[in-house]
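Example 4.3 (complexes with small molecules)
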Amino acid sequence: MDALEYRVFIKECHKIVVKVGTSTLSYPNGRLNFQRIESLASVISGLQQSGKQVILVSSGAIAAGSGRMGIKEKPAGLAEKQALAALGQTGLMKIYQKFFEARGQQVAQVLLTKDIVEVPERRVNASNTLKSLIEMDIIPIINENDTVATEEIEFGDNDTLSAYVACLVGADLLVMMTDIDGLYTADPRTNPDARLIPTVQEITEQMINSAKGTGNRFGTGGMVTKLAAASVCQKDNIPVIITNGGKPSNLQHILSGNPTGTLFYWRVHTLNN
Ligand code: GLU
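Answer. The structure with glutamic acid bound is encoded below.
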């Protein structure tokens, strides 16, 4: 895709799933970054009010819970993580609600487990709920239902969850916001020769290998889970962009058609609506 085609294509995207990771929503010490969340709410409200339909997939529950309890490392035990997620999720939604409502935008909490992929009735239910929220101009804020998600029913990370959500709602685009500018040829934190890859049409073994080892303290995903999420979207022909969430305005740049981050696009690209 050349720059001109990119501009036309991205500008026409209407239904957009935005995934924000824990690293974008919190400081390295785990405490929530209110300023960042507010500016994210401002950018997303602006997009929604300009006629786009945004579905937000947000991590950060465990980090928020840990921050409130003064816990500095993500706990290893499942029950403790679930308890912190329960504590953090309410705090996180309260903050989102405050910042979105201040901009005249309604938001709703949707907590999902993997059975929406595996059990057809649940899939239909989840899909209908999301459809109704979208029709009512309410932005769904989705997280994994961490408090009940055990191995059999968990997505495990929100990168994967966001890809399934993009497929479920028939999104035109999935944007994953993280703590790095996009996909690199190597880990830029350790390798000074690492270069940003602006576009990807095919996910290769080599990409997966060089993506290993990235990630942060409170989140679960990394570049490998992002590549896996992009593969899920590829099946439904949904393009994916990985961009730096440190600048929420990147979302505006992207949707104005400015090449930002890494774009994954597939051989055939059509808009879903
Ligand atoms: N659902 C987890 C949370 O809200 C995050 C999972 C992830 O980082 O991918 O804390």
